Amino acid sequence: MKKFKKLLALSIGTVLLASSLAGCGSKPAEQPAATDTKTEAPADDKAPADTASGDAKKFVLIVKSTGNPYNEKEAEGFKAAIEEAGAGEVILKAPAEPTAEAQIQMIEEAIAQKVTVIALAGNDPDALQPVLTKAMKAGIKVLSLDSSVNAASRMVHVNQADPERIGRVQVQAMAEMIGGKGQIAVLSATSQAANQNLWIEWMKKELEDPKYKDIELVKVAYGDDLRDKSTSETEALLKAYPDLKGIISPTTVGMAAAGKVLTDKGLSGKVKLTGLGLPSEMAEYITNGVCPWMYLWNPIDVGYLGAYSAMALADGTITGKEGDKFTAGRLGEKTVITAGDGTEIMLGDPFKFEPANIEEWKSVY
């Protein structure tokens, strides 16, 4: 806990400093910001997209959508890291809707701008492959963070935490909350979100354990990381399953929406809620008992690590191969590991937020 708080305090300090210097607004994911950056020749020895003209390196971050608090914090961390390193220009982009089509348009724009690196939280693992392949052929380094794209679409992925542990811990929490018995549902983001789907796979594997024989997963619903739709999906779950005992929502938008619905309907203590939420948004629901406890990592650090990974790709320190090592600023040394059919860089373990600590964290992020 002390180590986590120390890292988070350093993170917030860095972000505040970057914000004061650059006049960064409260929603950086919606407004492009500028800074300075670096890059390196790709494997086929073509000149990097932005070095031929001698211009500063350009790092683009494309998140899932506007109005997503988690994405906004991610963007803060990304911007702060690039500015901290004095590496080049930062361009922050966020589509109005969390769709692959919207991200494809933004990637095409980045290719036309001859940027150095594209980092993105993918809205679809496969639909983005053609345009990301096009970007890499143009000499642009590509990585995913938070929500991955398929391995053929990027050089490396930056992961928040071990997907297996994320999935299993949420089921374990829910089982404890409902006494190991009853109907539960999952309220996810989009049906194409790679990170959500992987966590849900591990939830289902955890539920195969005989100790959960009295727990029934009745439905996986999708709120598309939109507040209104997540609200309506929560209401639909409660109507369709009147005996529902718990909801797991592995998305910050879904968590906040479900927390409000359960509170407004006076269901505290009757329908339990857990998942992945922002402390600032979930403090009320943890305090009133709707959400006994939940988990998350620091989204600022996800963006920060994504930026240092991007810079390491750009200057050739890493290529995305297993065993590559680099120093990620205040996060220390990181190593590229094999995961599934590609490689990734791991941030750390999810952190438990509960009544005993939510007050000290709700004003942090």
What does this structure look like?
The protein has helices at 2-22, 69-85, 100-112, 129-137, 163-177, 194-207, 227-240, 252-264, 279-287, 299-314, 358-361; strands at residues 58-62, 89-93, 117-120, 141-145, 156-159, 182-188, 215-222, 244-249, 272-275, 294-296, 325-327, 333-335, 337-339, 342-346, 351-353. It is α/β, with parallel strands linked by helices. It has two domains: 2-160 and 298-348, Response regulator (Rossmann fold, 3-Layer(aba) Sandwich); 163-296, Rossmann fold (3-Layer(aba) Sandwich), CATH 3.40.50. The protein has a seven-stranded mixed sheet with strand order 2-1-3-4-5-14-13, with helices on both faces. Strands 7-6-8-9 form a four-stranded parallel sheet, sandwiched between helices. Strands 10-15 form a two-stranded antiparallel sheet. Helix 2 crosses helix 10, helix 3 (100-112) runs parallel beside helix 4 (129-137) and helix 7 packs across helix 8. The chain starts with a helix and ends with a helix. Residues 1-54 have low confidence and may be disordered.
Describe the secondary structure blueprint for this structure.
Elements: H1 2-22, E1 58-62, H2 69-85, E2 89-93, H3 100-112, E3 117-120, H4 129-137, E4 141-145, E5 156-159, H5 163-177, E6 182-188, H6 194-207, E7 215-222, H7 227-240, E8 244-249, H8 252-264, E9 272-275, H9 279-287, E10 294-296, H10 299-314, E11 325-327, E12 333-335, E13 337-339, E14 342-346, E15 351-353, H11 358-361
Parallel strand pairs: 1-2, 1-3, 3-4, 4-5, 5-14, 6-7, 6-8, 8-9
Antiparallel strand pairs: 10-15, 11-12, 13-14
Helix pairs in contact: 1-2, 2-10, 3-4, 5-6, 7-8
